[in-house]
Design a protein that fits this description.
This protein has 2 domains: about 70 residues, Orthogonal Bundle (434 Repressor (Amino-terminal Domain)); about 35 residues, no CATH class. It is about 65% helix and about 0% strand. Helix 1 packs parallel to helix 4, helix 2 packs across helix 3 and helix 6 packs antiparallel against helix 7. It starts with a helix and ends with a helix.
């Protein structure tokens, strides 16, 4: 969804509600975000998240559009490079063999598999 499409959808939503002017604040409240977040999306300063796009279509009654959007597979929270960095930071040798360092190292190693 582009910034213009979000703006147009907000206006269309207002028209479908009997000509009510749907403000960025109103849309923000429905999406449970700050009003300035919607403003930034509409100005193209921030990427519109997939969940917000889907929810905006749902609110506007464009069910076909909302449910046609396939949920993208989110990237892994910790990729192999990041796990290696964390292992280096929390290794028990760097923390006097503490139990916490052992536990976190074991957990990070389990994520590698």
């Amino acid at each position: 969804m582009t910034p213009k499409e979000l703006r147009d959808l907000r206006i269309k939503l207002g028209q479908s509600m009997g000509g009510l002017a749907v403000t960025q604040e109103m849309l923000a409240a429905w999406l449970h975000v700050a009003a300035n977040t919607v403003a930034r999306w509409e100005r193209g300063e921030r990427r519109i998240p997939h969940w917000a796009e889907k929810e905006a279509y749902r609110i506007a009654g464009n069910w076909d559009e909302a449910f046609a959007l396939a949920e993208p597979t989110p990237p892994p929270l910790l990729d192999k490079r990041r796990i290696r960095q964390l292992l280096q930071l929390c290794h028990p040798d760097k923390h006097d063999g503490s139990k916490a360092a052992h536990d976190v190292t074991a957990w990070l190693n389990s994520l590698r598999d």
